[in-house]
Amino acid sequence: MTRSKVGVTIQSTSIFLDDRTVVLSEAIARKWKVPSNQMINMRFGSYQQDVKVVTAAVPNSLRVDPALASKIGLHQGARLTINYKPTSNTMSIGPLIGVMISRVNASSPSRPFGPITTFCKELTDACVHVGASVCFFPPKEMHANPQSLSAYSYANGTWSKKTFPIPNVIYNRLTSRKYENMPNVQQFMKDVKSRYGTEIFNEKYLNKTEVFDALRKDSTLHSYLPESHLFKNFQMLKSMAARHNALFLKPITGSLGNGIIRIRKEGLGEAYTAHSTSLAGVRRQTFPSLLAVFQSISGKLKTQRYQIQQGLDLITAEGNPIDFRALVQRGEKGEWEITSIVGRIAGSQHFVSNLARGGTLSTVPEALAKAGFSSPTRATIIRKLRKSSLDIAKGIETQIQSHFGELGIDLAVDRSGRVWLLEVNSKPSKDDNTALNTDNNKNKIRPSVRTLVKYARYLAKY
Question: In the CATH scheme, what is the code of domain 206-223+313-426?
Answer without folding.
Answer: 3.30.470.20
